[in-house]
C-alpha cells in the first residue's frame, strides 16, 4: 500500500471510529495520547494512530470490527499499570490503543449469591469499597489498586497479597463478557459456581493479556467480610525458618492466614530511608522479616487468641527472633506501607532489574540462597531486594544496582541477570512470571524456557481465535 493510500485509509478509519465513540472517546493529538503510550517504568514507550475509549460493550465491538476490516492492530489497555509492556503499543505507530476507562459501571451487587457484576474499566479499589458497603469482601488487593482496572487485572491474572487465602484473579471470576477479534460478542456472564458444560472458555481470556479478545465485563466472586484482623511484623534470623513459620501459622489459626509477606533487611533499610511514615519497629536489625495477617469473618472466633498462640509457639521453637503486633489501625497500615512501598523505595537507590518468579513454597529459602549467591558472584556489590508472597511461593526478586555504578551500564546486564535467575527458577520447577504476565518483556523468555509443545499449543489457540493477528500482536506469543 502506498503511503498516500495508507494515510487515506487511516483517516477514514479515524473518522469511522469517531462516529462510534464521539469526540470525547477518541484522542489523536500526540500530547493527549502520551500518557497511554508509555509503560509505567519507562521500559517501553510506543506510538499509536489513536487512543479510543468506548463507553459500552457495543461500542467496543464496533471499534474492533472496524479495525479488523481495516487490518489495523489493537492494543487493549486498562489502567496502564502493567509491568511487562503488554498494555502499550509498539514504536512503529501503526496500532490503535483501546482504553477501557469509560466502561466503568458496577452493573449489580448480589450479596446473597456473593457476586458482583462489573464492567472492565472499574477501578479495583472501587470494587473493594462497593463489596464492603454490601457487607462482603472482594479479596484481590495489590499496590496499584487505586488506579488499576479490573479488566486488566483479569487479563493479566493478577495476584496480590491475598492469594494464599483466596487464590489468583482466575479463582475470583465466575463469568466474562468478551469482544472477540472479529467484533463478535461472547456473553459468558453466568453467576454460577458450577457450570460443567464443556470447555471453560473464560480461562482462555483470564491471563490472555488481551491477545485473544477484549474483556468488557465480568461476574466476580465475593466473600464474607472479615470482622477481625490481627497483624504482626516478625523478625527472622534464618531464612530457612520462613516456611516453618508459615506452616505453624496455618496450622494454629485454622487456616485463617490471609497474608504472609517477606521483606529482607535491605528492603527494610530503604523503606525506612525513603518512605514517609515508615520506621523500623525493632531495636536491633534482623536479616529477614515476615508480615503476617490473620483474618476472620466470625465475631466469636477468638482470632487474637489464635494469633498469640502462633507467636508463642514460633518463639518457643526458635523460628522467630522478635515480633511486633499491630495494636492500632495506624500501626497496621504502617506495616503494610513498609511492604507495599518497597518498589517505590527502590527507585531512590538507582536502577533495578526485576524478577517476578515463583517456586514451590517449600523451596523458597533454597531459591533465595542460590539466586543471591549466583548474582553476587556475577556482579560484586549488587544489592538483592527480595520481597513478596511467600504464602504462594511468589517472590519479587529485584536486583538494585551497586552503589556508584552507572545506571545504563547496569541495565545493560538485564539479560545476563535474567539468565542467571531464570535458569535457577526453571531448575527448581518454578515460573519466570508468577503474577505480572508475559507481555512484551518476557515473550522471548518463555520461548526459551517453555516446552515446544506448550508454545505450539499457544500459537494454535491464537491462530484459531485471531487469524489476522491483530489483537495485541507481539505480546505473550508470536505467530
TrEMBL record:
Keywords: FAD, Flavoprotein, Oxidoreductase. GO terms for molecular function: FAD binding; oxidoreductase activity. It comes from the Bacteria. Its cofactor is FAD. InterPro entries: FAD-bd_oxidored_4_C (IPR004113), FAD-bd_PCMH (IPR016166), FAD-bd_PCMH-like_sf (IPR036318), FAD-bd_PCMH_sub1 (IPR016167), FAD-bd_PCMH_sub2 (IPR016169), FAD-linked_Oxase-like_C (IPR016164), FAD-oxidored/transferase_4 (IPR051264), Oxid_FAD_bind_N (IPR006094). Residues 44-225 form the FAD-binding PCMH-type domain. This is 4-phosphoerythronate dehydrogenase (FAD-dependent). It comes from Caenispirillum bisanense. The lineage of its organism: Bacteria, Pseudomonadati, Pseudomonadota, Alphaproteobacteria, Rhodospirillales.
Amino acid at each position: 500500500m502506498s503511503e498516500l493510500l495508507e494515510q487515506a485509509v487511516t483517516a477514514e478509519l479515524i473518522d469511522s471510529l469517531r462516529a462510534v465513540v464521539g469526540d470525547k472517546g477518541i484522542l489523536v493529538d500526540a500530547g493527549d495520547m502520551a500518557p497511554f503510550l508509555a509503560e509505567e517504568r519507562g521500559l517501553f514507550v510506543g506510538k499509536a494512530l489513536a487512543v479510543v475509549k468506548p463507553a459500552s460493550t457495543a461500542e467496543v465491538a464496533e471499534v474492533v470490527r472496524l479495525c479488523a476490516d481495516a487490518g489495523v492492530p489493537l492494543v487493549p489497555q486498562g489502567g496502564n499499570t502493567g509491568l511487562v509492556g503488554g498494555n502499550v503499543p509498539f514504536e512503529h505507530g501503526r496500532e490503535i490503543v483501546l482504553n477501557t476507562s469509560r466502561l466503568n459501571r458496577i452493573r449489580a451487587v448480589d450479596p446473597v449469591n456473593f457476586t458482583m457484576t462489573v464492567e472492565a474499566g472499574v477501578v479495583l479499589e472501587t470494587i473493594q469499597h462497593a463489596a464492603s458497603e454490601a457487607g462482603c469482601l472482594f479479596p484481590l488487593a495489590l499496590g496499584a489498586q487505586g488506579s488499576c482496572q479490573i479488566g486488566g487485572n483479569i487479563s493479566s491474572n493478577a495476584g496480590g497479597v491475598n492469594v494464599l487465602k483466596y487464590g489468583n484473579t482466575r479463582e475470583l471470576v465466575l463469568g466474562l463478557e468478551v469482544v472477540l477479534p472479529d467484533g463478535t460478542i461472547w456473553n459468558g456472564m453466568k453467576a454460577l459456581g458450577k457450570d460443567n458444560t464443556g470447555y471453560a472458555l473464560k480461562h482462555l481470556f483470564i491471563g490472555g493479556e488481551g491477545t485473544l479478545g477484549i474483556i468488557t465485563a465480568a461476574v466476580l466472586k465475593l466473600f464474607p467480610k472479615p470482622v477481625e484482623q490481627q497483624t504482626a511484623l516478625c523478625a527472622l534470623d534464618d531464612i530457612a525458618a520462613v516456611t516453618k513459620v508459615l506452616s505453624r501459622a496455618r496450622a494454629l489459626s485454622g487456616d485463617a492466614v490471609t497474608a504472609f509477606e517477606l521483606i529482607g533487611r535491605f528492603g527494610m533499610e530503604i523503606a525506612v530511608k525513603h518512605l514517609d511514615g515508615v520506621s523500623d519497629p525493632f531495636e536491633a536489625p534482623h536479616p529477614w522479616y515476615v508480615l503476617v495477617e490473620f483474618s476472620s469473618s466470625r465475631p466469636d472466633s477468638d482470632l487474637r487468641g489464635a494469633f498469640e498462640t502462633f507467636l508463642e509457639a514460633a518463639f518457643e521453637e526458635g523460628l522467630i527472633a522478635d515480633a511486633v503486633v499491630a495494636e492500632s489501625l495506624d500501626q497496621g497500615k504502617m506495616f503494610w506501607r513498609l511492604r507495599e512501598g518497597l518498589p517505590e523505595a527502590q527507585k531512590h537507590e538507582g536502577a533495578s532489574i526485576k524478577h517476578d518468579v515463583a517456586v514451590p513454597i517449600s523451596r523458597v529459602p533454597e531459591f533465595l540462597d542460590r539466586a543471591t549467591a549466583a548474582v553476587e558472584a556475577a556482579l560484586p556489590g549488587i544489592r538483592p531486594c527480595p520481597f513478596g508472597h511467600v504464602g504462594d511461593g511468589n517472590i519479587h526478586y529485584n536486583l538494585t544496582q551497586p552503589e556508584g555504578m552507572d545506571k545504563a551500564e547496569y541495565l545493560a546486564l538485564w539479560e545476563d541477570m535474567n539468565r542467571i535467575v531464570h535458569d535457577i527458577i526453571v531448575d527448581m520447577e518454578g515460573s519466570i512470571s508468577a503474577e505480572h504476565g508475559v507481555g512484551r518483556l518476557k515473550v522471548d523468555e518463555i520461548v526459551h524456557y517453555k516446552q515446544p509443545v506448550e508454545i505450539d499449543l499457544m500459537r494454535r489457540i491464537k491462530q484459531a481465535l485471531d487469524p489476522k493477528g491483530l489483537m495485541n500482536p507481539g505480546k505473550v506469543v508470536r505467530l
